[in-house]
Amino acid sequence: MNNIHDWSAFVNIEPISATHQSSLRVLKTISGRFFLGKTSSSKIKRWISEFEREIVSKSLPKSPIDGPISVHISFRFGYNKGIRKKDIGKILWKTTRPDLDNMEKSILDSLSRVGVITEDKNVVLKSSEKCYCKKPGIYITIDKLGEYRDFSEDFQK
User: Which CATH topology does 7-148 take?
Assistant: First the structure.
């Protein structure tokens, strides 16, 4: 935690290339009923477990952040093999898979599960980005917002 945000953390883990969406499979129960789910050995489940262990090892808030919140997530991937030497050291946008919205879901669900936020439904303002950079990882900031937003200033111009 710092003076600028209600909670922030840099998680030193490469963002996952698989997402909840891509790991869904049609599975069958012992009784023969079909359902949509993830296998226990899926890449995303292993990654989420590792991510949650990293979050818990950071300083968690004294109690989960409740009420309307703003979340910013920066997914920072390591450079791929095709990077030009002149671009090393620069932050470059990642315009390939995985989709940003699917990556956000995994993070918000995890933040709720480990007790950083009470529920992901409380996220009323969200921004995120995905890029290539020198130091891969995930940077997350959370700010508690007031109970309402005054839109009157937006329309007086």
Answer: 60s Ribosomal Protein L30; Chain: A; (3.30.1330)
Q: Choose among 154, 138, 148: nearest CA to 8.
A: 138
Q: What's 59-107 look like in SS3?
A: CCCCCCECCCEEEEEEEEEECCCCCCHHHCCCCEECCCCCCHHHHHHHH
Q: What tokens were used for 21? A: 């969406």
Q: Which pTM value belongs to this model?
A: 0.82
Q: Where are the domains of the chain?
A: 7-148
Tens-digit pLDDT profile for residues 94-113? 999 899 998 999 999 999 99
CA pair distance 146, 157, nearest whole angstrom? 24
Which residue(s) pair with 73 in the sheet?
A: 128, 140
Contacts of 42 (CB under 8 A, 6+ apart): 18, 23
Q: What is the DSSP letter of 50?
A: H
